Amino acid sequence: MSPTEPNQPGTEPSAPSAAPRPTGERGREQDSQEDRQFNIAQMMVGTAMIFVGFLNVLLSISGGFEIAGVVPVLLYFAGLAIWAHATVANPTVRYIVITLSVTMALAFLSYGEVLFWHKQLIFWGTILMVGYFMFKTATPDKT
Length: 143
Prior knowledge:
single chain, mainly alpha
């Protein structure tokens, strides 16, 4: 048997088990595009959750009524954690915001009710956080 004979079991080409991942510049472009799309989705979901939670807190402060349970506050802090993960560039600040958000959500969940001064802290904390991130100069992208 010669090595070029087609009936040889060792010479049959094997089918690839998975499609090869693109390498080089094109692969990095595709990965960065997917990361960018995922970050945009996180920003949108986080902003929507913050808006829904904060709207309930703001209306209860201005209208004088109570929030029914802690769900709006949990939505607010969960949205804040998701938003911070997607948008804050400095890892130290990002993980401090995420840690504080999760801690506050768990504290409200275990406490079980939202008092007036809790709503005031959430309101003024949001004002300070928006002011900080709005007026902080953004770092230029390295593209």
